[in-house]
Every structure is written in structure tokens, then in C-alpha cells.
Amino acid sequence: MDILTEQEYHFFAVTEIWLTSNIPTEVVKVPEYNFYRRDREGRGGGIGIYIKSMYQVRLVDFGIDTSTVVESIWLEVTLHKEKCIGVIYRPPSKSFGDFANVWDCPAFVHLSV
């Protein structure tokens, strides 16, 4: 983890975390970061975001279920003003066309990719 202490990243995302609900977040704890995760139901996958613990963070729910196409997690982070950051992962078993269609959802209209 030297790269994290040398570069002082404010946040970083990870995919294919392979965590399940019976694995506590403390197992993947990184000092000075909070970890927000979305486990895949079933085998493999999963995504997460580590964010410096100095920030106020709120999980964002857009009110849509995209889990059949992509894995995603969205957070509202208060810096000088609120910013929304997220991670989206398209599993290899899903088509790029299905992935692109997720962005047509009205919930994502205000996001810039």
C-alpha cells in the first residue's frame, strides 16, 4: 500500500472484489480510508470505492435496478460542494449494447460521462 501513502489519493475504485455479505469490510480496510462496497449476488464480481475518511459521504440511490446489466455504486462526496462519483463495471458476460442502454435511463441524465 505504499503507493497510497506516497500519492495521497482522495479516492480510488476497485472491481472484482469477490466479497460476500459474510465477509466484513474490516478485512479489506485501508488506513485513513472508508470503504463503500456493492457485492455481487453469486460468485465473483463486486465493486467498491475507497474514500479518504476526512470527507462526508452519502450513498446515492437513483431508484433503478441496473444489476442485471452492470454493477454500480454511486456516492455523494462533500468537497467544497457536493459531487457525485461512482464506479460502473460491465461483466464480460454482458453486451456493450446493454451497457450503453443503461445511460438512457432518466436517472442518469444529469450525470456527465
Description of the molecule:
InterPro entries: Endo/exonu/phosph_ase_sf (IPR036691). It is built from two helices and six strands, in the order αββββββα. The chain has helices at residues 2-7, 96-102, and strands at residues 11-15, 33-38, 47-52, 56-59, 71-78, 82-89. Strand 2 and strand 3 (47-52) form a beta hairpin. It has a single domain (2-108), classed as 4-Layer Sandwich (Deoxyribonuclease I, Chain A).
Key descriptive features of the protein:
12% helix; mainly beta; globular; Deoxyribonuclease I, Chain A; 2 helices; Endo/exonu/phosph_ase_sf; 3-stranded antiparallel sheet; 113 residues
Structural class label:
mainly beta
Q: Average pLDDT, to the nearest integer?
A: 81
Considering the protein shown, what is the CATH homologous superfamily?
Endonuclease/exonuclease/phosphatase
Report the C-alpha radius of gyration, rounded. 15 Å
CATH class category: Alpha Beta
* Separation of the first and last Cα atoms: 29 Å
Largest sheet properties? 3 strands, antiparallel
Number of helices: 2
**CATH topology name:** Deoxyribonuclease I, Chain A
InterPro entries: Endo/exonu/phosph_ase_sf (IPR036691)
